[in-house]
Design brief:
Elements (H helix, E strand, L loop, with lengths): L1 H11 L5 H7 L1 H24 L5 H21 L4 H19 L2 H33 L2 H6 L3 E3 L5 E4 L4 E3 L14 H17 L6 H15 L4 H21 L4 H19 L2 H15 L3 H19 L7 H5 L9 H8 L1 H16 L6 H15 L8 H7 L20
Antiparallel strand pairs: 1-2, 2-3
Helix pairs in contact: 1-3, 3-5, 4-5, 5-18, 6-8, 6-9, 8-9, 8-10, 8-17, 10-12, 10-17, 13-15, 15-16, 16-17
Length: 404
């Protein structure tokens, strides 16, 4: 249970949440996470002392951390940001060693379900009611309305935040941007659709809530990712039922009917058209994203082994809105290769997914986390490294841990 609490805190107090940026503050949030990590580290050290870790498996993460530390030392990049990233990666490895991935999935899906429900209630129930009541000054005096870094008012209900404007409908969840939120929802949806061996009726209900929540972010990335997830899942169903003509006909007809019904709804068509234009036309968002991508790619080519000082990357004229090449631009291509490898491990951990399906899922996850800059986000590394297994083969990972 303690590790579950730590996972919750790691998500709530990550650098990209409104709780950290507007309520608690980054310094306090970091100290809280470090303090709460102490029992987890003690439990991990006990495993080391008991020689229950597989050294051959440990070498892969040791090499990753060594490549990053060496790059930092060679560049003499003494930014505290680098220390925080190393702490996040090490802590993610420790947590993954102490908890089985099946249990991690259960915790994560339930956490995202609660956050999804809270965000929907905050944005589409509580906010409209409070705006109509016209009690903004009272809400501000109770810290139920706070300001973000851009000086916008947000309704703060703890597990849900909403821009306090009458006609603004995008769902932020607890995050500073809706495009941050879509990544966490994407991972939960992937876990249910592709990483669960047996789906129950409850799973389908949870999946429906998560998809609705993802749509309400009105993020172009979210729309593209939902489309890709639907295509991959339909192709998987067709492939599995390719020899059963009856099932195959039902699947094709159901998909065609559902698509037609969805496109017949004006609001759905508007979302699709708006997302298409945001991606294909030149606008402030697309210019920033493509510019960020090319900037980090050029920096990677310039210094592929040790990367560049983080200040050189973070001072880009716009803002860094990608993760994959941002990692290589800062720490070199070795951490980039590791990031892709761990993403593939996450996509293929089911054990039933073939390589083509795993690569497709991997591509979707990469697309999702390249909608923003996640290098300095603790929960990102915890998710990405959640499938690491450093225990000896055959050992029960939950034995003698904080969850036992």
């Amino acid at each position: 249970m303690y590790i579950c609490i730590y996972i919750i805190i790691s998500i709530l107090l990550s650098r990209n949440t409104m709780i950290t940026s507007c309520v608690v503050g980054f310094q306090k949030a970091s100290l809280i996470c470090m303090a709460l990590a102490i029992p987890i580290y003690i439990c991990f050290l006990k495993k080391v002392y008991d020689k229950s870790l597989d050294f051959a498996r440990c070498k892969i993460v040791i090499f990753l951390l060594s490549s990053m530390v060496i790059a930092i030392l060679i560049k003499r990049d003494w930014q505290l940001y680098n220390i925080s990233v190393l702490f996040y990666i090490i802590t993610a490895i420790v947590v993954a060693t102490l908890i089985d991935f099946e249990l991690f999935k259960k915790y994560y899906i339930n956490i995202m379900l609660v956050l999804a429900i809270c965000s929907l209630l905050t944005t589409y129930v509580a906010k409209p009611i409070l705006i109509e009541m016209d009690i903004q000054e009272k809400l501000e005096s109770c810290n139920l309305i706070i300001k973000n870094s851009s000086n916008y008012n947000f309704l703060n209900l703890g597990f849900g935040f909403a821009l306090f404007q009458k006609d603004y409908i995008r769902n932020y969840g607890i995050f500073t941007e809706p495009s941050f939120y879509q990544f966490y929802l994407t991972v939960a949806i992937v876990m249910i659709l592709f990483l669960k061996k047996n789906k129950t009726r409850i799973d389908w209900i949870i999946l429906f809530i998560l998809i609705i929540t993802m749509v309400t972010t009105f993020s172009a990335a979210a729309m593209v990712i939902l489309f890709c997830l639907a295509i991959v899942y339909i192709v998987e169903l067709v492939y599995k039922n390719r020899k059963n003509k009856k099932n195959l006909t039902i699947i094709v007809c159901a998909c065609g009917l559902l698509t037609g019904l969805m496109l017949s709804i004006p609001s759905t068509r508007n979302i699709v058209v708006t997302s298409y234009h945001k991606i294909t036309t030149s606008n402030e968002s697309s210019i920033s994203r493509y510019g960020s991508l090319w900037f980090t790619l050029e920096k990677t080519i310039k210094s592929p082994i040790i990367g560049n000082k983080i200040a050189e990357i973070s001072t880009y004229k716009e803002s860094i809105t990608n993760t994959t090449f941002a990692i290589s631009a800062i720490y070199g291509v070795i951490p980039l290769i590791y990031t892709l490898y761990f993403t593939y491990k996450l996509a293929s951990d089911n054990g039933k997914n073939n390589k083509i399906l795993s690569i497709a899922i991997m591509a979707i996850i990469i697309l999702s986390y390249n909608s923003h800059f996640y290098v300095g986000v603790q929960s990102f590394w915890m998710i990405l490294l959640s499938t690491i297994k450093l225990n000896r083969r055959g050992e029960n990972k939950n034995e003698n841990t904080l969850d036992s």
